[in-house]
């Protein structure tokens, strides 16, 4: 049990570290000057984080098994009443959810960066804080609206709770793709590198 | 032969401040060009726009007739592409990093440049002084075999002996057809290196003249020619 708790904590720390690394790439000249299109840079960066995450989670599971095989098997036994597909989708949600969060953080960062370029330099600090608050609030509202609409469509189809589970997985993937498309557009057209001397 | 770099009616503003306005510039192949101007004239901004660090939304900039940003980046080696590594890598690891990412990066040239500039591949980046870091920047920038080199104040923090070494490195390692655009505040230091000068003033190119014309036809040295543009302000 201890190894599981440790795994969750370590995963949280890694998620934060990877988020910071991902954001650095969008504005660092070292990466922005690479002879790549913004689409390739974005996909490369997001996939690097995604695979780092998968790699780490596999290590966490292996470590949990090595440190306490008995409790590991016990935990597996408690989850014995689902189908393979349910477990696969559950694992998919665990693996994709951080990518969704990283892409959402990037969206706020890139939008803040874009708007900041149109504001006077002497109010940058305060305007960035205000922008982040407004953007997080606004994007939260939009996300709520999208979720409610999705739930209503789903409810009208009178699907079962199993279907709800699968649809939430699809919703997560679709939202990540939509956010990524907006991020790539911002990178291509608006977000510029921020050299240290600037 | 067409020009290597063509800039047509480039304007650029940021944070509600107009930095460049209706700037036009053409640079031929195989030249060493001095980009001169006072602090805040827009020299670094111009280099960042050419390199692709800043976005040229109207496609005003073309290198080898290419306006596409990703292609342009492959044709430009800019001093700002160096730095921002995570951790404190050793210099040879930095060489390997650029070798893996840039097709035109020549590791042998990089190592020879390091040796010329008295840098050891085993040194860590955080152990370098400001001057030695500038040397590393020059080594990485010149180790790429490309068409256009953008050197933004390459001699900042560098002693006179090393300055001479860097100047001879630029002459030695620059591919014959490549053009080097170099900005520096100390005009006298780079004057002998230059084939032509471009002066940025009032957000545009105020003058572009061959070094020989300045010396022989106008009878001035480059420093005096440059300072004449600011005579009223002196």
TrEMBL record, chain B:
Q: What is this protein called?
A: ATP-binding cassette domain-containing protein
Q: The ABC transporter domain covers which part of the protein? A: 5-227
Q: Name one GO molecular function term.
A: ATP binding
Key words of the record: ATP-binding, Nucleotide-binding
Q: Does the keyword Plastid apply?
A: no
Q: Which species expresses this protein natively?
A: Pediococcus pentosaceus
Q: Which Pfam families match?
A: ABC_tran
